[in-house]
Every structure is written in structure tokens, then in C-alpha cells.
Amino acid sequence: MVISVIADTVLRQIETVQDTVSETLFEPVIRIGVTGLARAGKTVFITSLVANLLDRGRMPHLLAAADGRIDAAFLQPQPDDTVPRFDFESHLADLTAREPRWPDSTRTVSELRLSLRVRRGGLLAGLQGPRTVHIDIVDYPGEWLLDLALLEKSYGAWSAEMLARIEGRGEAAAYRDLVAQTDPAAPLEETRAQALASEFTAYLTAARAAGYSDCTPGRFLLPGDLAGSPVLTFAPLPGDGSGPRGSLLREMARRYEAYRKSVVRPFFREHFAKIDRQVVLVDVLGAIHKGPQAVEDMRGAMADILSAFRPGQNAFLTQLFQGRRVGKILFAATKADHLHHNQHAKLTAITEALVRGASDRAKFAGATTAAMSIASLRATTEETITHDGKTLDVVRGRLLETGKQAAFHPGALPDDPGHLLTPARAGAEKWLDQDYRVMNFAPQPLTLRPGEGPPHIRLDHAAQFLLGDRL
Asked: Most buried of the four, 114, 221, 284, 425, by CB within 10 Å?
């Protein structure tokens, strides 16, 4: 096994050297990972970003587009033959249909390559012709990204952490009862193992629906072709995993190790370790609506996500000898169109505060980070109305549940993010002086002029941050 690991590491280093030399001397490749937890809008983000890079009429803050230096953009087959293609055309059709709808959410890893023909700027503009820049966009579920933290945890450490975390959660009551009725040192009974895994999966599903972000292992929620396999038939139990031979506890620890080795590590090696720019989409408004515990849980999840990254600068020699590092990380608070624009700065400040600790560590390692409030597809319009003698800035859109038009004011976000994060850290169960609400809006029917992509909020700022230095 040791020889196999060494050989695999050497082979990957050789592949890294080959890719780095090729990209440096010939056609550069920017590999962008896009992730986020459930309902953050990953599919819509990628679809709108690609559509707006193909038709750049709404991208004034992407400087290469504003300067007219992007001559052409076209989709090509992705370089990884074993990775499913991101179904851009179907998702765009969903958003631009006569009766538009939100596309299906991310269920597995997918990839798309967009190539740009870019004219050089500055002193080299008249000396060299246009060059091709490839943008590889990799879409993967945020739940899988959280699993990378398991690589550093033993079964005993993970179990202790998980059991402590679910102690006060009503969603885990049935699982806690089942654990109380289970003797970890008893001989393995497959029916008992399956019952524990099934009940633990039910807890994770309920926790995600309640707004919690720390729902790992992620494959329990998105099992794919692993559904029902032993590698997904384990759960946290008291003890360090060193029970008697043939015991339930010993088998749970073995299956956990198999999950780390056969599921988590290949994902890191084949997808995550190759990324050099990262977008983390965050449904901050949804967490605020769920309450202080959901906000604190999201803060912890963001820290776990950042602990999985290898931040730093991707200098030529660094890539040759140490592999790729994530050079830029964008934290994007989605659904900014649910707020009037005069609250966007507050939403950005709250997002910055949520990821402050993780962001500081990434900056210390040499990465560049940014936080923004965006809407990948604008589904509302802004209005000012009078209500009870007061002037309110609202957004108007088509409700997802009924299809009816409605004006909506979610409540004023605080100027100081600490007014949210302090009670969240203190374990408060609800906000004391505010009632933050969220509505689900359906996409609006679109009328696009030639050369225009779908309407958005600050998607061009996001593209400039991620791509501008390479264009």
C-alpha cells in the first residue's frame, strides 16, 4: 500500500509538471471551482456567468470586455473525459423559457470549458496577436467539500465531535434514542448498522432543511451510485473505534476509514487539488432567516471549508514542485436581489464577518480573498412604497409558490455585523429585536437583446476578480 501511495504521488507530480509547463508556454488555463452549500445557487451562478461571458453586453466591470479586447468566446469539450459535462444549454433554456424555472441543483461533479480569444493590452498589444485563454469551471456540491476535513480526523474524533454537536438538536432526537439503545461493543449485526446509518441520514436531511450547514458526511445526502453500499453504512458512536474484533464499533470505524480512503481522498486528488481559483456561494439571507444558530453553524462551516483549501500564490516554480494552490477565493452572498440595493453593503459586511477567521488564514498564506453580494440572475425589481405612513424600499417579484406578483421588505439588516454574530456565538435561539424574513422568488420572463446575457447583480465584478488579472 505504501509503495502504491508513493507511486501515485510521483505520477501526479509528473502530471502537474507537464500541465504547468504546457499552460505557461502555450495556452493558459484558469481552473475555477464553484461550490456552496444547499440552496446557494451554484447551477444558476455557473449558467449565468458562462452566458454573460459568451454575450458580454452586461459585463461593464470585466475590464477586458469593457475595453473590447475579448474577440470571441466559445464552448469546447472539457479536458477531463471521465467527468460529466455541466449541462449549460439545458439550464439556460430553463432560465430563458417563456415560463422560466430554476434549474435542478447540483448532484455531482461536472465541468465546462469556456475559451476566450483575447487581444493583449499595454505595450505588447501591437507586437503580438491574440491569445487563447481557457476557463475550466468545475461544479461540485459543498457537502462534498466539507468532507475534506474528515481527512484529518479519526473515527473516534469525528464521532465525539458529531455526538456533541447534535446533543441539543431536535432533528437528532430519534438518532440519539437509537444510540442510547445500542451497545457499541456488541457483535456486528448488519440490520443494526443499517438502522443507525439510515437514522443518521434522516437527521442530516432534516438538519439541512432546518438551515444547518455542518451536514457531513456529504455523500449521505448525495449518495449517487454508492447508495446502500457498506462505505455509506456507518454512523457516529461513543468510543474511539477500537472495540473488540467483530464488534459494531470496530466495523463502524473500518467503514469510516474506507469512506475517507475510497470516497473523500479520490475527490480531493482528482478534482479539488487541481483548482487555482475558488468561488464559495453562501446563502447568508437564508441563514439569517433561520435564526442565530443557523448563522453560527454557517460560520463554522465556512471555517471548515477554508481549512480544506491550499491557499497561496501559483508561481511557476511553486506549481512545479508543490502543486496547484488556490490563489483567489471569492465569498459571494447570493440572492442580493431579495434586498433593495441600499442594503447590499450591509449584506457584504455580514458575509465578510462570517468568513473573517478563514479569510485571514488564506491571506496569510498568500491568497487573495474578497466578499461580494451578488445575484446570478436578477428575479426582482426595486420599488419605493408607502406603508402605515412610512416610506419603504422594497423588491417586487413573482412568488415561486403561487406565481403571483408581490412586493417584499425583509427587514433592515444591522449596520454592525456584530449585532448578528454576537448573539449567534452566544447560542441565542432567536433574534431579539428583528424578524428577518425571506421569500422565494421565481425567475422573471426575460427579453434579451442580441449580445446581452441574463440580468444580474455584480456578476461582472465577480468575473473581474476571478479572471481579470489573467485576461
From this structure: 284
